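I am writing to request your help with a piece of structural work I have in hand. Here, with my thanks, is the record as I have it:
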Amino acid sequence: MEFIQANNYPIHFNEKAYEALNKHLKETKYSKIFIIVDTQTNEHCAPHFLPLLETDLTVEIIEFESGEINKNIDTCIEIWKVLTELGADRKSLVINLGGGVVTDLGGFVASTFKRGLDFIHIPTTLLSMVDASVGGKTGVDLGNLKNQIGVINVPLMVLIDTHYLETLPQNEMRSGLAEMLKHGLIYDRQYWEQFLDLTSLDFDTLDTLIYRSVEIKNEIVKQDPTEKNIRKALNFGHTLGHAIEGYFLDHEAKKTLLHGEAIAIGMILESYICLRKNLISEAEYIQIKKTIQTIYEDVDFETSDIDPILELLIHDKKNEYGLIQFALIDGIGKIIINQSVENNLILDAFKDYKS
């Protein structure tokens, strides 16, 4: 697969990814290499990656506990301290080996330590391959508020190796699939239609689908790197999805949802809103809802859950001038941004989901 050129950095795939990395290491004079991992990727992914790294430099691994609950400023502080203790300087390189939590947090750590170190992303989950590692967003959560603290700062390169997916549980694969579904819904109807029947999906097909998903996100981000306009299209399903994810994360009685699981719910809810606003047909809505519900288990919402979820919408980072902003599909494959939605319509969407 040919590399994809993003804004100021390349995205390399499979074997060619390591060739590009090692070529860069030979051509650039770094002082040390720091690999940021979580407990899962240190166990399952580092053993594959380290033998492929060609360097005589000192390599240090910095590990933190896996899980969205650890994507916070306290974890950053601990990593900044370790970087300091291990003698990291402005000529050090950070490699983030992991899923979206690692790439988001590791990118933020590197972007802010000593006012910025070079960093490279090696996403190891389907979700991070098609979403988190592409586009330059870095950051951490503030309590149960998703991605409230962070900066947009691009890596030197992104290396996508689908070998890492062989260690991924099915629920993590489904989580990443949600973003791929979203890319089809907002940008490419033909791409969306490839997901209507997943019975014949194999790794070769998945490679091609991942490549197209990265292309779609990159095509959008290149037009609007700092999310002032069309990049907001990528927020479809995320306005309600992030609020649901944050609410379930903060309540011990609730089963924590993976990002993609929450976004899948968000896409159903926001598709219903599109239906009510006459942006999509009933047939399109039924197709979207049926396809997503075939892949993801339904989640039970109590009546008492809805108001706290709506309250979290107020803090969504996509809001402007105190108004909640939605990106909505205008027919499958097209998007409109900066849409306001009345609370009663959101409540109706939850009722329809529960039905």
Q: What stands out?
A: The mean pLDDT is 94. The first helix runs from residue 14 to 27.
